[in-house]
DNA sequence: CTGAAAGCGCTTACAG
DNA sequence: CTGAAAGCGCTTACAG
C-alpha cells in the first residue's frame, strides 16, 4: 500500500533559492498576497515556471489542519439513478474547490464500513453517503462523533440523527398514483423493492395515501416485493398479472423495475400503455428511450446530489446541522407507458 | 476552498502522553513493529481506543513522500459503459490499498484540464484516465513529464506515447460483422460515433476487415455517423433505412446507439431481429434487458478497468511502462436482435 | 526495547 | 516589502 518515493517534485524551497528570496515570500506569491512587490512576484513566478512547480496541497492542508477532499460513498454506482446522483455531487464539489474520494459499496455493508475507515484516515473534510442497505450505523456515528461532518442522501437513517437530504418519495408516489386514478384506474399495484428499504416504505406510504384519498381500499396482495432491478420488475409484474383479479396498472419502486415489468408484459403479449399502465420512479436516462417511453416521477436527481454536496459544504464551513431533513421536490413526467384502462377506452368509444 | 480548522483529532503525541511512551513508540505500534514489547503495545492500543485515535495518512504520506490516492478521470460517467469501467478501476484500487479521487469530465476537454490540475496538486500517486474527446494531450504530457505515472484506458492517445489499456475494438467489430455475414447478411451498415473518435476508427476497421475477408465491397454510404447516444442511434438508423437500397443489418458503435436504433426501427414498424438485425458493442446492463435482447460484443468492461488499475499500480511500484498497448479480449454475445435476413428465412422456408 | 531529533512541504505570525 | 522560526502529524535512522 502506498507508492515508493518518486523523483521528487520542486518545492517552495527550490523556487525560493532560484528566485533569490525566502520561502515565505514564495508562499506569499502563491496566495496572491499584495504584500509582495510586483518585480519580486514576477521573479518567483518565473522560477516556478522554470522548475515546473506543482503546489502540494496535501502539505498545505496538513499545516492548515484542513482538507479539500470529501468522501463520496455510493451504495450502487451501477444503478443509473446513483450514477446521476454521484455526478451531481461531484460537479458541485469541484465547483466549490473540493475534490471527491469515491467509494462504491455495491450495497455491501461490510465494504461500506471498510471504505469509510479508509476515507476517514485520508483526512477528508467531510463525507456524503448514500447508505447501503443494512448499513452499520455505529460506524457512521463513530465518525460523526469524532467531529467529521456527514450527510446522508437518498436513504434515510432515521435512527442516526444524521443530516439527510432526499427527495419527497411519499409525495412523488402519491402524484404517480393519482395520475393513474385520474386516468380511470382503480385497481393499481405497487411493484418492486422491499419493506426493509426506507425509500420503499416512503413510496408505499404515498401509494396508500393516494388510494385512500380516492376511497380505494388498500389491498396488501397488490404489493409485490422484488429486488429493485429489471429482472425483479419482471418477476413482480408476473405475480401481479397471474392474480385472479389482476390490477390494470402499477406504480413501480423505480424505473429499472418499471422497465423490467414492461419487458415481461410484452413477453406475455401485454402492451404497456395500452393493456396495462406502468409508472416508474427516478427518470433515469433510459426512461425516455424505453419502448414505450416511460411515465415516471423525477426527484431531479442531479440537483439532489448538488444539494447534498452543498449541505455538506455548509457543515464543513461551520454551519449548524439542518434542523430537519432537506427534502427536494418531485415531479410527474407523463409519457406513453400510462393510459386509460382498456375497459375505459372501450366505454369512451362506445 | 478548504475547510476551516475543526475540533482537532487526537494525534500520536496525545497517545504517547497518555500511554507514557514516546511518539516513536506509538508510531512503531502503528506499523505493527515487533520491536515493541507486548505490554507496551497494549498500553498504547488502549490509549488509542480511549482517545478515538484515527491515523492521519496524509501526514504519513507527506513524510514518506508517497501517496495512496490515485486520480480516476472518466470521460462520461453517465454512460453505463464508463460507469462499469470506473467500478472496475475503483474495486481494484481499494483491493490494493489505494483510494480513487474521481473526476467526471463529461467529454469536456477544458474541464479535463482543470480537474487534472486539481488532482495533480492533491499529490496523487498516479492517474488513470479515459480521455475526453479532443483531449488536450499537452496537459497530460506535462504531468507525465513531471514524473507522475499515467495510464490511459479505452481511448488511445496514440500521439502521446502514454501507456494504454483497451479492448480489442477491431477484432470485436470483426466478429460482430462476421456473425451477421454468417447469418446471411451481405449489406451491413455501421451506425454511430464519429471518425474523430479513435474507438470508432478501430471499430470501423474491424467492420471493413470482415467485409473484405468475405469479398463484400465496402460502401461509405453504409456508415452513418451520429453522437454515440440512444437518440444518435435512432437518427443513424433512420438515414440507413431511408436509403434507396437499405442494408438488412447493422453493427453499432455501442449499445446505446443500438438500443436507440432498435427503438426507431420499432417506431417505423420494423422489428429488430426479424426484419432488421442489430448488433451492439459493450454489453451494458441494459443490453440483456432490451426488447429484443441485444446481440452485442463485450470487452469485459469491469475487468478492463481492473487491468488498467493494475498497470497503473505496477507503474507506481516502479515497473517500466508496458512496451505495447495492453489489449483485452473481446467476445460476441448472441441474443435476439440478430437473425438471418428476412429474404433468407423466406428462401429457407420455401 | 524505547527516546530524542530531524525532516516531509507548506503557512503564519513576528521582526525588521 | 521580506526573512527566520515554529509547527501541522507523521516516520526513520541513530543512540542508548
Structure summarized in a few sentences:
The first copy, chain A, has helices at 12-19, 23-30, 38-51, 57-64, 80-95, 109-121, 137-145, 169-183, 198-213, 230-241, 255-267, 285-289, 301-316, 342-349, and strands at residues 69-74, 99-104, 126-129, 150-153, 164-167, 188-191, 223-224, 249-252, 277-279, 296-298, 326-328, 331-333.
Describe this structure in words.
2 copies of one chain form a homodimer. Chain A is of the alpha/beta class. Chain A folds into 3 domains: 12-55, 434 Repressor (Amino-terminal Domain) (Orthogonal Bundle), CATH 1.10.260; 67-162 and 301-326, 3-Layer(aba) Sandwich (Rossmann fold), CATH 3.40.50.2300; 169-295 and 334-349, 3-Layer(aba) Sandwich (Rossmann fold), CATH 3.40.50.2300. Helix content of chain A is 46%, strand content 13%. Chain A has 14 helices and 12 strands. Chain A has helices at residues 12-19, 23-30, 38-51, 57-64, 80-95, 109-121, 137-145, 169-183, 198-213, 230-241, 255-267, 285-289, 301-316, 342-349, and strands spanning 69-74, 99-104, 126-129, 150-153, 164-167, 188-191, 223-224, 249-252, 277-279, 296-298, 326-328, 331-333. In chain A, the strands form 3 sheets. The first copy, chain A, has a 6-stranded parallel sheet with strand order 2-1-3-4-5-11, with helices on both faces. A 4-stranded parallel sheet of chain A has the order 7-6-8-9, sandwiched between helices. In chain A, β8, α11 and β9 form a beta-alpha-beta unit. In chain A, α1 crosses α2, α1 (12-19) packs across α3 and α8 runs parallel beside α9 (198-213). The longest helix of chain A is centred in the N-terminal third of the chain and has 16 residues, at 80-95. The radius of gyration of chain A is 26 Å and the shape is elongated. Mean pLDDT of chain A is 93; it is low at 1-6. Chains A and B meet through α4, α5, β2, α6 and α11 of A and α4, α5, β2, α6 and α11 of B. The first copy, chain A, binds a DNA duplex (16 and 16 nucleotides) through residues 8, 11-13, 21-25, 27-28, 30-31, 35-37, 40, 55-65.
